[in-house]
Amino acid sequence: MTRNSSVPVVVSAFLIGLLFGIGLLVAGMANPAKVLAFLDLAGAWDPSLALVMGGAIVVGLVAFRVAGQRKISLLGEPMRLPTRRDVDKRLVWGSLGFGIGWGLAGFCPGPALVALGAGQMKAVVFVVAMLAGMALFELLERRPGKRPMAP
Description:
Elements: H1 6-27, H2 32-39, H3 48-68, H4 89-105, H5 109-117, H6 121-141
Helix pairs in contact: 1-5, 2-4, 5-6
């Protein structure tokens, strides 16, 4: 990133994050009770978050299709998209951990940060646990003799 491009990058990142956070609030994703009701298929199931997820998938598919055809971002930075397409142990275990945490707490990282900003105490506990988990992951990744992750 060049010195001149840092201001537009920060401003656009702020505006996109703000829009994302507002979207999470409006959709109810920052409300653990609504998320847990969506996950409760055998009880009082609330299917409304399926529309939120469906909309997010459509937007993501379009965005990745457009981004994949570009070499430079709209802000002039090089495009860096994921290249790996294989399913390995790390992906499976990470997905399981994410799903279990989401099911137990009713939060995933984005909505938890939005709820934290809204002052929800449950979000404080979740974010502290999330940061502890991230720190533990980093410690485990830096163990001597650990093979580096493939790019």
